[in-house]
Amino acid sequence: MKIIILGAGQVGGTLAENLASEANDITVVDHDAERLRQLQDRLDIRTIQGKGSYPNILKQAGAEDADMLVAVTNSDEVNMVACQVAHTLFKTPTKISRVRAIPYLLKKDLFGSDAFPIDVLISPEQVVTNHITRLIEYPGALQVTDFSKGMVRLVAIRASKGGPLVGHELAYLRQHMPNIDTRVAAIFRKDSAITPDGNTVIEDGDEVFFIAATNHIRAVMSELQPLEKPYKRIIIAGGGNIGHRLAEKLESKHQVKIIEHNSKRCVELSESLNKTIVLQGNATNKEMLLEENIEDTDVFCAVTNDDDANIMASMLAKRLGARKVMTLISNVDYVDLIQGREIDIAISPQQTTIGSLLTHVRRGDVVNVHSLRRGAAEAIEAIAHGDHRSSKVVGKRLDEIPLPEGTTIGAIVRHNEVLIAHDHIRVQPDDHVILFLVDKSKVREVEKLFQVGLAFF
């Protein structure tokens, strides 16, 4: 595909990296020459310096025959106008725009063919908020991703002593929980991927990815580690967009406090939130954390826009007795260094957002993409079309489908029914097939499996 990306910041740069590695024709536009040079040093892409909403810059970037425009500059207005220009002057087929400001997002009529012609709206803050909310909903999970409108979830969890399945073969799970169906899609042991079968023994410390119907998630988690008590008391460091949205989502069921240093912002937060306690101060202040009973806090969530402040506040909170700390970290290089030591979960906004963007770039009818393990692995929800003549998957038993190495089918959703993957199941037209790829470089092979041959037409 020929794709123009406006904005070479963290989201634009991460997207360019993902797409360039998949043999797409990528052009990145940004006003910052240094950012563009750094990207071009690493990736096989074209770069154009200039303002992405200007018609001459879009023309220079190849908008006349581009398949897709992805506008992810840090200005909502530039992104929105660029989509309008691409639509009006160049008839660009697909336009994706990042829009962060809530006043715009509240007015759905703004986005459509007779207003701002944006096909897909991406709000990174909303994506990150949903990601953190799911982690709070499932204490002990490292990552929770939704498929088929939330009917199925893929969960990453660290196996630990005390979980009934730890030290046993996977086949034991079926005997132990005969009424609950689940599929372990992958196991990462000391950062090496293991494709599991019934004889695989789960070891203490394994990172296990499993798929199950949403109402079975907790039961399966309890097999892999002692089930944690639900989270009640939550402290959020940072009252920006993410902190505000997070408090809004959590305050009806949890006791929430926000620590924000800006007094004007504190007033805005206290006026717009119902039950959340808003505190003015610095989350890296030890006395303040102790005054707010940090030792009784279930989750400390650092979501300011400063990585260093988030890391320092989280490490301090953990040392002072917070049960779990979750930290927003924009610098991808920090994530691996930090997670699993004093910080329980490091959240990369780019990796969390990238799935929403990749969903619209994948070939075949792909309706969901989730980037996993800092972009190395991927989970995909693809719809099977055609019949046994035109499709490589329709009509076949799951054990007959020629999946690339390291790829597993975890579940199928058929007419609102969740079928956990077993070899004897045959794929039918319109099935939603959920796949896990240990190695995302195999994504092209998976896409080809779900593309319909000419016989279908």
TrEMBL record:
Organism: Alkalimarinus alittae
NCBIfam families for this protein: PRK09496.1-1 (NF007030), PRK09496.1-2 (NF007031), PRK09496.1-4 (NF007032), PRK09496.3-2 (NF007039)
Domain RCK C-terminal: 142-226, 367-452
Pfam families documented for this protein: TrkA_C (PF02080), TrkA_N (PF02254)
PANTHER family noted in UniProt: POTASSIUM CHANNEL PROTEIN 2-RELATED-RELATED (PTHR43833), TRK SYSTEM POTASSIUM UPTAKE PROTEIN TRKA (PTHR43833:SF5)
InterPro entries the UniProt entry points to: K_uptake_TrkA, NAD(P)-bd_dom_sf, RCK_C, RCK_C_sf, RCK_N, Trk_Ktr_HKT_K-transport
Protein known as: Trk system potassium uptake protein TrkA
Keyword Membrane (UniProt): no
Record domain RCK N-terminal: where: 1-122, 231-347
Transmembrane segments: none
Keyword list, A-Z: Ion transport, NAD, Potassium, Potassium transport, Transport
Gene, per the UniProt record: trkA
